[in-house]
Write a structure and sequence with these properties.
- The complex is a heterodimer of chains A (168) and B (597).
- Chain A has 168 residues and is of the alpha+beta class.
- Chain A contains five helices and nine strands, in the order αβαββαββαββαββ.
- In chain A, strands 5, 6, 7, 8 and 9 form a five-stranded antiparallel sheet that branches. In chain A, strands 2-3-1-4 form a four-stranded antiparallel sheet.
- The longest helix of chain A is centred in the middle third of the chain and has 13 residues.
- The N terminus of chain A is likely disordered.
- Chain B has three domains: 177 residues, Rossmann fold, CATH 3.40.50.970; 162 residues, TPP-binding domain (Rossmann fold); 171 residues, 3-Layer(aba) Sandwich (Rossmann fold).
- The radius of gyration of chain B is 26 Å and the shape is globular.
- The chains are: A alpha+beta (168), B alpha/beta (597).
- Chains A and B meet through α2 and α3 of A and loops of B.
């Protein structure tokens, strides 16, 4: 199931004015035109007047074309970039609070090591692990943690950047 | 120029003056009193006091439709602003340039559910090209000019500027020349026409054996009517128009096929069905045009001219797309097309369809009945079509589109995309302000629609506007009734408008002449009387009750499903009411058990 969706998702980077209401305009556009958002992140950029959104959407090429064109019509949107023909880096971060009985800690730490994660907090019966990577990696880390008992989990959603010297 | 100092309200009016605004339609209220105080002292602006903000919005639209200029309307905060919503949405759907100015509660109480507070920028976000809540008076002059720039540039549309009452009163020091220099780096509207695409279009045109030009409101917005006509005449290609394209190509031209779509002419729809090249000019493949998209112009290649890149491939994939001002594009295309292209076979086919399936109407000569289509045809004949026509929404609108026979763009003003009942009268008033007292504006309305903005009659009376209102009164919400008759076994649910005010008395109460006509013999005299009378006149035409608009392609279906005329009824099913009033005070025991399970 996860792979079927992954085959149809696209990552879009949108540079927008750093102004109140912009997120509502963008998310409202997706809602009213019936585009599905898988994840959306917003952050500041090196330019204080600009914010950068990374949106992961589900849909075919026609839908992506429409999304791009409709986004361009929003006055607050400066740039829309899909990574269709460009090699890209994708990263996501997860904080995962896992049940960790003392006798199973070593096992968990071993897995954390394999995923190059970090233990960022630890309590008697739980620890919080931070892992970064592509969506697939995080998915599989989650899967590995499931048998121990995931108490809580939060993912940042995807961020993306072009490889090489070019910029959005 | 040096900086000047003024209140926010005065700066707002200064921006209107600089944008060439001569008239605004509005309604005061608490949050806009400071603005109205400046209007009180203003000498370059006519303010029309409407009777409901929706009416004001539609007047601004009608004015804009008729003139091509930006319409401006004002409402106060809260209900004043929300009453504008329908008109703003209407303008969005029909690409009408409009600036709506709303008052807002004081900045310090925004978000506190203050008296008459409504988040109007939030509410209108999806129905404006852009909107602003101006919390700092220093931004106000610049925002006003940006608003006009965005409203009229590219594909036109509405914008809204929401101004808190304290911002109107605050003092701003600014350079009015400087703020007029608009630069919005993220707003692109001047798409250059791509020469290669034009060349490819010309190649497709040269290969076409069965071409059709499909012309929409975008051609009118670009002022491209002469170029559309030149293209048609040079190539000999037939032309069909959308509802908003009506008049862009004169309907008495032999190449005109009239309107296409759900209630378009049979021959226009057949032409599109069978064409091998569809040239869309400023049209957006609306569902009322296409019906079932996968079956629409199935064998045709498509050339799509549009100023909005978002329209390309939205509904129908184009083989060649030309983004940009369509006047510019057509100008580039014209020298590349050949005048000797032979499509005589196709033209002969079109002529055959036209004579086989003409638009039908009943002039009452046989049976003495009075039909709405006939009234419209008589209005057209007697006014020599030298008038502006507005309509409301429903059967009368489609009959007007079919039977009036438009001659020039901006002659026909209607609510196409949103389909807003109540649009006709205020739009006629706004249009009349736009075209001036020497040109009559005919509002063709229905008895249902007319009652939705009836309060604006007094504006026509006060300004003695030559607005002639023809209510085609069939005592039904006719279009809904038609669907119920055709697709819902004649279940006439809530469409009976028999109990209505006496429209002639209404006219008199509002201080205008009211005329009633219930006889086909009196139609001409009634229309003539209205034409001869100065100022507004209201006519109540009592037309046949249960008639349908034909041809009709049922919603979402294909040209193959087109109903050209009323089928000969062999046996009509009785109109029955299945509604059984139930005592809802006590729950039915069975249902209670059901829920418990």
């Amino acid at each position: 199931m996860a792979t079927a969706i992954a085959a149809q998702t696209h990552t879009i980077t949108v540079l927008v004015d750093n102004r109140p209401g912009v997120l509502a305009r963008v998310s409202g556009l997706f809602a009213r035109r019936g585009y599905n958002i898988e994840s959306l992140t917003v952050s500041i950029t090196d330019n204080p007047n600009m914010s950068r959104m990374t949106i992961v959407v589900a849909g075919d090429a026609d839908t992506l074309e429409q999304i791009t064109k409709q986004l361009h019509k929003l006055i607050d949107v400066h740039k829309v970039f899909d990574y269709l023909d460009t090699p890209m880096l994708e990263r996501e971060l997860v904080l995962l609070k896992v049940q960790s009985e003392p006798e199973r800690r070593a096992e968990i730490l071993q897995l954390v090591e394999i995923f190059r994660g970090k233990v960022v907090d630890i309590a008697d019966r739980a620890m919080v692990i931070e892992v970064t990577g592509g969506g697939d990696k995080i998915d599989s880390f989650e899967k590995q943690m499931e048998p121990f008992g995931i108490r809580e989990l939060v993912r940042t959603g995807r961020i993306a950047m072009m490889r090489g010297s070019r910029t959005v | 120029m040096a900086k000047i100092k003024s209140t926010g309200a005065k700066a707002l009016l200064e921006s209107l003056r600089r944008e060439g605004v001569e008239i605004i339609f509005g309604y005061p209220g608490g949050a806009v009193i400071p603005l109205y105080d400046e209007i009180y002292h203003c000498d370059f602006l006519q303010h029309v006091l409407v009777r409901h903000e929706q009416g004001g919005g539609h007047m601004a639209e009608g004015y804009s439709h008729a003139t091509g200029k930006v319409g401006v309307c004002i409402g106060t905060s809260g209900p004043g602003a929300t009453n504008l919503v329908t008109a703003i949405c209407d303008a969005m759907m029909d690409s009408i340039p409009m600036v709506a100015i709303t008052g807002q509660v004081r900045t310090e109480v925004i978000g506190k559910d203050a008296f008459q507070e409504a988040d109007i920028t939030g509410i209108t976000m999806p129905i404006t090209k852009h909107n602003w809540l101006v919390k700092d008076v220093n931004d106000l002059p610049r925002v006003m000019h940006e608003a006009f720039h965005i409203a009229r540039s590219g594909r036109p549309g509405p914008v809204l500027v929401d101004v808190p009452v304290d911002v109107f009163r605050a003092i701003v020091e600014y350079d009015p020349d400087e703020v007029q220099n608009i630069e919005i780096s993220s707003f692109k509207s001047d798409f250059k026409v791509h020469k290669v695409q034009v060349k490819r279009a010309a190649e497709l045109i040269a290969q076409a054996k069965k071409p059709v030009l499909y012309v929409g409101g975008g051609a009118k917005a670009a002022g491209a009517e002469h170029l559309v006509q030149a293209l048609a005449h040079k190539t000999g290609f037939p032309v069909t128009t959308t509802l908003h394209g009506l008049g862009t190509f004169p309907e008495n031209d032999p190449l005109s096929l009239g309107m296409l779509g759900m209630h378009g002419t049979a021959y226009a729809n057949l032409a599109v069905e069978h064409c091998d090249l569809l040239i869309a000019i400023g049209a957006r493949f609306d569902d009322r045009v296409t019906g079932k998209v996968s079956a629409f112009a199935q064998n045709a290649k498509v050339i799509h001219f549009d100023i909005d890149p978002g329209e390309i491939n939205k509904v129908r994939r184009a083989d060649v797309s030309i983004v940009g001002n369509c006047a510019e594009a057509l100008e580039a295309l014209l020298p590349l097309v050949d005048e000797t292209q032979d499509i005589s076979e196709w033209r002969a086919q079109l002529d055959a369809w036209r004579s086989d399936m003409p638009l039908e109407f009943n002039d009452g000569a046989q049976d003495g009945t009075l039909h709405a289509e006939w009234v419209i045809r008589e209005i057209a004949r007697l006014t020599d079509r030298n008038v502006v026509v507005t309509t409301d929404v429903g059967q009368h609108q489609m009959w007007a589109a079919q039977h009036f026979g438009m001659r020039s763009p901006r002659q026909f003003i209607t609510s196409g995309g949103l389909g807003t009942m109540g649009f006709g009268l205020p739009a006629a008033i706004g249009a009349s302000f736009g075209v001036g007292p020497d040109k009559d504006v005919w509002c063709i309305s229905g008895d249902g629609s007319f009652q939705m903005c009836i309060q604006e009659l007094i504006v026509a009376t006060i300004y003695k506007l030559p607005v002639k209102i023809a209510i085609l009164n069939n005592t039904f919400l006719g279009m809904v009734r038609q669907w119920q008759e055709m697709f819902w076994q004649k279940h006439y649910s809530s469409v009976d408008m028999e109990r209505a005010p006496d429209f002639v008395l209404v006219a008199e109460a509002y201080g205008m002449l009211g005329l009633r006509c219930d006889n086909v013999a009196d139609v001409e005299a009634t229309i003539r009387k209205a034409m001869e009378t100065e100022g507004p006149v209201l006519m109540d035409f009592r037309v046949v009750k249960e008639t349908n608009v034909y041809p009709m392609i049922p919603s979402g279906q294909t040209v193959g499903d087109m109903i050209v005329r009323k089928p000969q009824q062999i046996e009509e099913p009785e109109s029955t009411c299945h509604y059984q009033p139930r005592d809802t005070r006590m729950p039915v025991v069975d249902e209670v058990v059901d829920v418990a399970r």
